[in-house]
Amino acid sequence: MSRPPLPGVRPVPLIAVAHGSRDPRAAATVEELLDLVRRARPELPVRAAYLDHAPATLAGALAGRTEAAVLPLLLTEAYHSRVDIPGALAEAAARQPRLRVHRGATLGPHPLLTAALERRLAEADVAAGDPETAVVLVSAGSGDHRANATVARIARAWSRRGWWAVAAAYASAAAPAPQAEVRRLLAAGAPRVVVAPYLLAPGHFADRIRADTLAAGAAAVADVLGAAPEVASVLLERYGQALRAAERSITA
Do 62 and 77 belong together in one domain? Predict the structure, then answer.
């Protein structure tokens, strides 16, 4: 968690940048998540921005500010965090030369996100670490192989919790597809297979994953991470890290 501000010192505003979606459920979920952050830190100005499909843009959210911490609401480092957000920040800096931005890291990977995945599975009546259950961890997928490799590493680490197996799958841009992985695990002898979407918000990918994997034989599909308290805690941790990095750069 980030440190509380000193008395009389206004905290640096937090701008959380999500991908954005045409599905209104996505923006509603982002606001639910940020409401958790606001309740944990009521003195902290918190606002959402979106890379596409929804207002406000990052440049719009930064307009009129002199300082802000910009935190990606993204689960892995990929194109959006490496290209889109820096590009939007460069655009904002050109318009506001005196703007000071503290750029934070993506939410994942983080152990608390694995805890949030287990929370969502528990809500689907799946006990954490059940040795009779195989889990398919499904991310959106990326053209950046490093992002997909990160999801695979999360799956390998999570498998040590005692599950029959944990396997990574990708809804787009990479293989295996989630429904193919469900079938593979069942054919390999898994007593039952469940699906854990490594997605922040509902939308097209989440709906398709649910439909395709249930049709392939999955016993249960958990909800997306959404407004889980663990995700809010990670966001505040990333906020604190961004500010501490700025402090170190000043004193170095």
Answer: yes
- The string of pLDDT tens digits covering residues 156-192 is 999 999 999 999 999 999 999 999 999 999 999 999 9
Tell me the pLDDT tens digit for each residue of 6-20.
555 689 999 999 999
The answer to whether the beta carbons of residues 92 and 101 sit under 8 Å apart is yes
Mark residue 64 as left, alpha or beta (left: phi above 0; alpha: psi -120 to 50; beta: remaining).
Answer: left
High-pLDDT (> 90) share of the chain, % = 83
Domain of 146, in residue numbers? 125-221
Q: Mean per-residue pLDDT for 55-66? A: 92
Looking at residue 90, its pLDDT comes to 87
14 contacts: CB under 8 Å, gap ≥ 6? 37, 44, 45, 46, 47, 68, 69, 71, 235, 239
Looking at every residue in the chain, the average pLDDT score rounds to: 93
Q: Closest by alpha carbon to 76, among 221, 225, 177, 223?
A: 225
Sequential DSSP letters for 172-190: SSSSS-HHHHHHHHHHTT-
Look up tokens 């206004």; give the residue. 10
The CATH number assigned to the domain holding 160 equals 3.40.50.1400
**99 is a domain residue:** yes
